[in-house]
Amino acid sequence: MSEDDYRRVTYDLTLSVAATLSKLNPAMTFIYVSGAGTDSTEHGRMTWARIKGKTENALLALPFKAAYMFRPGYIQPMHGVRTKTIWYGAIYAIVAPLYPVLKTLFPRSVTTT
């Protein structure tokens, strides 16, 4: 995905929805699932990390009662959730048996759907 396309999906769309919601109900809490490695400085080398950081910063500036940013490192699909990306499916199949070990070693970085 190009940087412009990633920005449109990750930043523009998210902020459009969030800004509308904050106007309709500023007393609400907004939760954003970002990702481990997100760059809040917005100046790092990784495009996705910069854009996620910019998105988080903009969300935190909106007038919500509260806004929380979650940065999981790995999300294990459960209960029939399937990826459309073939190689992600292969990775999930390999990692699934290791999930309990990952959860023990990195309890704040891994979760399930």
Task: Walk me through what this model shows.
48% of the residues lie in helices and 14% in strands. It has four helices and four strands. The model has no long low-confidence stretch (mean pLDDT 94). The protein has two domains: 3-70, no CATH class; 74-112, no CATH class. The protein has a two-stranded parallel ribbon. Strands 3-4 form a two-stranded parallel sheet. The chain is α/β, with parallel strands linked by helices.
Give the structure's gist in a few sentences.
This protein is α/β, with parallel strands linked by helices and 113 residues long. Helices cover 48% and strands 14% of the residues.
Jot down its keywords.
two-stranded parallel sheet; 14% strand; 2 domains; 4 helices; single chain; alpha/beta; 113 residues; globular
**How many discrete domains?**
2
What share of the residues lie within helices? 40-55%
Sheet-strand content, in percent, reads 5-15%
Number of helices: 4
The side-by-side strand order for the widest beta sheet comes to 1-2
- Class by helix and strand content? alpha/beta
Find the count of extended strands (DSSP E, 2+ residues). Answer: 4
The SSE string, one letter per element, is HEHEEHHE
Distance between the termini: 24 Å
Main pleated-sheet profile: 2 strands, parallel
Low-pLDDT windows of residues = none
Radius of gyration: 16 Å
The shape is: globular
Question: What integer is the average pLDDT?
Answer: 94
Please outline the helices and strands.
Layout: H1 3-24, E1 29-33, H2 47-61, E2 66-70, E3 74-76, H3 86-95, H4 99-105, E4 110-112
Parallel strand pairs: 1-2, 3-4
Helix pairs in contact: 1-2
